[in-house]
Design a protein that fits this description.
The chain has a single domain, classed as Winged helix-like DNA-binding domain superfamily/Winged helix DNA-binding domain (Arc Repressor Mutant, subunit A, Orthogonal Bundle). It is 69% helix and 13% strand. The protein contains 6 helices and 3 strands; from the N terminus they run H-H-E-H-H-E-E-H-H. A 3-stranded antiparallel sheet has the order 1-3-2.
């Protein structure tokens, strides 16, 4: 369950799962994930590689070339992530309404907290 709670893990695995050919270089993956820093991407890739979800392939060429792909275990995890993405898409309107209601409830709660303190 800890893997699902880390923002970039599911996004990286989802991107690798959808990558044409199944293998991807670090720079390509970073461009596919707006907002991720190179440091966070490398850290995330190392973590999922250590957990056996991603395989790292190093080519003995100049300049160095490294590609990543999902392992069979990683593919099963990516399948679970894909189910969550589909659920979110299928329930987008309800989730948007819930978020709007929560935001207006937070504003109301904040206002009553301020009034109560006065």
């Amino acid at each position: 369950m800890g893997l699902f709670s880390v923002k970039w893990v599911s996004l990286v695995l989802h991107a690798l799962d959808r990558w044409p050919g199944g293998r991807c270089r670090t720079g390509e993956l970073q461009r596919a994930l707006p907002g991720i820093s190179k440091k966070m991407l490398v850290q995330t890739l190392r973590d999922v590689e250590a957990r056996g979800l991603v395989a790292r392939h190093v080519f003995n060429v100049v300049p160095p070339k490294v590609e990543y792909e999902l392992t069979p275990l990683g593919k099963t995890f990516a399948g679970a992530v894909e189910m969550l993405y589909r659920w979110g898409e299928d329930h987008q309107q309800a989730l948007d309404e819930l978020e709007a209601n929560m935001a207006s409830g937070d504003a109301t709660a904040d206002a009553s907290d301020i009034e109560g303190d006065a």
